[in-house]
Amino acid sequence: MSVSEYEDEPVRGLPGYLPSDETLIWQGEPDFKVMARRVFHVRNIAIYFALLIAVHLGVQAMGSSSLTEVILGSTWMIGLGLLAVGILALLALAYARTTVYTLTNKRLVLRFGVAMPMMVNIPLSIVTAADMRRFPDGSGDIVLSLDQKKRLSYMMLWPNVRSWHMNPTQPALRSVANVEELAASLASVVSSAQPLRGESTTVESASDHSAALSTS
């Protein structure tokens, strides 16, 4: 799936134009470098393969093999490591380029998806908590706790979820470059949102057909 599949959006990151009583507060997307490092663990995988190669070279060097034979014997490991890192980096780039987070005075909209474009609408009135995880570079994640009976699919929302928390699944805005700015905006609008009876998170495909959620 290419980014061009989102070109028909009337408003970037949204399924339609905002109603007259709804205001755009903040909009952003995951930072590719942060997502590659924090979500797809590209750096850790690269270090893992580097250590494997170093150990292999050390063991072979202590044997009777020549330097040329040692280097040639490690070529496949180097190639495998580069392939793994390259695939993960491309996945991180694809997810970062196709994900948009939108905050209005009434809801959060998560637009994402590489193979299957999806949109998740989360009314602010059902957000019971928003926890910020800030990294040293100023980027971070915002994890949401929701008050609703319908259960969201972890696999469908990934990677826009709190890792390894499946019951209940907690939606998350991942790898946001300036997470404190988002946290401040979110806190101001959530505190003023009034609970509305019957509101719940909705999930839509790119064709704007609602996808059914399993009830708890």
Describe the structure.
There is one protein chain. With 216 residues, the protein is of the alpha+beta class. It folds into 2 domains: 3-30 and 99-205, PH-domain like, CATH 2.30.29; 37-94. The chain has 6 helices and 9 strands. The chain has helices at residues 32-38, 42-61, 67-73, 75-97, 154-157, 179-190, and strands spanning 24-28, 100-104, 107-112, 118-123, 127-134, 140-146, 161-166, 169-176, 202-205. Strands 1-2-3-4-9 form a 5-stranded antiparallel β-sheet. β2 and β3 (107-112) form a beta hairpin. The longest helix is centred in the middle third of the chain and has 23 residues, at 75-97. It is elongated.
Fourth CATH level, the homologous superfamily of the largest domain: Pleckstrin-homology domain (PH domain)/Phosphotyrosine-binding domain (PTB)
CATH architecture of the largest domain: Roll
Task: Tell me the series of helices and strands, N- to C-terminal.
Answer: EHHHHEEEEEHEEHE
Oligomeric state as shown: single chain
What does the largest sheet look like? 5 strands, antiparallel
Classify the helix fraction into a percent range: 25-40%
CATH topology of the largest domain: PH-domain like
- How far is the N terminus from the C terminus? 32 Å
Q: Reading side by side through the largest sheet, how are the strands ordered? A: 1-2-3-4-9
Task: Tell me, briefly, the overall form.
Answer: elongated
Q: If you compute it from the alpha carbons, what radius of gyration comes out, rounded to the nearest whole angstrom?
A: 21 Å
The tally of domains stands at 2
CATH C-level label of the largest domain: Mainly Beta
Number of helices: 6
Compute the number of strand runs.
9
Q: Tell me the fraction of residues in β-strands, as a range.
A: 25-35%
Overall residue-averaged pLDDT value = 84
Q: Low-confidence parts, pLDDT < 50 over ≥5 residues?
A: 206-216
Pairing-aware structural class of the strands and helices?
A: alpha+beta
